[in-house]
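Hi again,

Forgot to attach this to my earlier email, sorry! This is the prediction with manganese (II) ion bound. I've pasted everything inline since the attachment limit keeps bouncing my files.
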Amino acid sequence: METFDFIGDVHGCYQELTAWFHKAGYKKNGDKYEHPDGRTPVFIGDLTDRGPDSTSVIELVAAMVEKGTALYIPGNHCDKLYRYMLGRPVQITGGMDTTIEELKALSPELSKSIQNTFMHLFEKAPLYLRLDQDSIAAAHAGIPEKYIGQSGKSVKTFVLYGDITGEKKEDGTPVRRDWAAHYTGKRLIVYGHTPVPKPRQLNHTVNIDTGCVFGGHLTGLHYPEMTYTQVPSSMPYIPEKFRFFPDI
Ligand SMILES: [Mn+2]
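Structure tokens for the complex follow:
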């Protein structure tokens, strides 16, 4: 039986990530964390931005994925950072400035090396994962049944940004539909992207983004146990960044 630990949006919270590994029973071995029972951590995107140590998160996750001891799928912040690293014109918004400042503070050689590491990680990553004989799918912002097995622009937009309507809220962020409320599939969908005050289980979906970078928790979902390990955030609590659904 394969066992997985899905880890939600880290956003540069390296301290909370290492604390999470220790709390969940992992041990440091060289540049990676390993669980004595061979559990596989699965990072569900948004490794960087807003938090204090995005470059360390990149290095740790990339080292573990490279050695085949962890899995990773990208989030919207990863996609944008990748485009920035390619030299494309991207707006430095949404907390991306912190990651760029970190890179600029390094020597040019080390900055280049971390950028290459991240670009390699991103380029190798699938848009979403199907695990445990296809009984689970993991995607950063979720995935509807109809897109599983599909690829292309609509799928990419959904897994990175969620079920967006194209409209913007007053603060400039996209309006997101609550796709999980209408999900009727049998597969368990593990996702993040929308910070919630506690893990939200609904209709065979689980949102594990508990807003670590906004003063919530870093949450890992243990599968198949369906239990959680959580580490409180060291960041200031910003309640307006959380979405409070009526069912939680
Ligand atoms: Mn996201």
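The chain is about 30% helix and 20% strand. The chain has a mean pLDDT of 96.

That should be everything now.

G.
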